[in-house]
Design a protein that fits this description.
YefM-like fold, alpha+beta, 81 residues, three-stranded mixed beta sheet, elongated
C-alpha cells in the first residue's frame, strides 16, 4: 500500500521519506488539503550503457562516401536538371 503524507510533513522529512521510497520501492503520495498532488517513486529507467553496448548500437550506421568533396543529393534538386 502506498504511503500518503502532507506537503508540510514531506518538507520536514524529505530525506527520510526519499530513503524509504528508495529502500521499499513503494511510491509515496504527497497531499495538499487531503488531495493527492504528486507521487514520488523510485527511478525505473534503463541501465547505463557500457562501452560494448554503445559500440554495438552504432554498428552499421556509418555512412561512407567515395569522394567526400562531391556534392550529394544532386538528384533531389529539380532546378539543377
Amino acid at each position: 500500500m502506498q504511503q500518503m503524507v502532507s506537503k508540510a510533513h514531506f518538507k520536514a522529512h524529505i530525506l527520510e521519506l526519499l530513503r524509504e521510497v528508495e529502500k521499499t520501492k513503494q511510491p509515496l503520495v504527497v497531499t495538499h488539503d487531503g488531495k493527492p498532488v504528486i507521487e514520488v517513486s523510485s527511478y525505473k529507467g534503463k541501465e547505463p550503457l557500457n562501452d560494448e553496448a554503445i559500440l554495438k548500437s552504432l554498428r552499421g550506421t556509418l555512412v561512407y562516401y567515395e569522394d567526400p568533396n562531391e556534392p550529394v543529393g544532386l538528384e533531389d534538386w529539380e532546378a539543377l536538371k
